[in-house]
Amino acid sequence: MVFCQAAHANVFVVNVGGSAGLAFQPGFLNIAPGDTVVFVNKGGFHNVKADDNSFRCARGCDGQPGGSGAPSSSNWVASVTFPSAANIGYYCEIHGQPGKGMYGTINVLAPQPPPSLSGTPAIGTAFATLLALALTAFAGWRLRRRV
Ligand SMILES: [Cu+2]
Q: What's this model's pTM, rounded to 2 decimal places?
C-alpha cells in the first residue's frame, strides 16, 4: 500500500517571485496526500513559511540537515511533501503574511472513492433480474409447447 501510494505521488512546481512579481505561481494548488511541492526561486529575496509553522524553506528547510528557511536571493529550490489531507496557507516572510501580499494556498485533498464502485452493483442487479425474467418466460413458453 505504501509503495503504491509513493508510485502514484505527483510533484508540483510553485514558482517564487521572478517575472511573476511578488507572488507565488500558481498561488492556489490542489494536490493529493503524499504529493510533493517544489518551490523554485525565480528571482528576488524570498522564502516560504507555512501559516501553521509546519515548514519554513528557502535554501532547504529549517530542521533539515544543512537547510535554512531564512529568506535568500539565491536561486534556491526547496521541496515539501504533504502526507495528509489539510489546507495549508503559506507566505513569504519579506513580502507577505498569512493570506496577504505574497502568499499561497495548498489544498491537500483526501482521496475520493472510485465512482464506479457505487454504480456497478446496481447495473449488475438490474441485468440479473432481466436475465431471470427472460429465462422464466422461455421456460414457460417451452412448457406450453409440450402440452
Ligand atoms: Cu518575497
A: 0.73
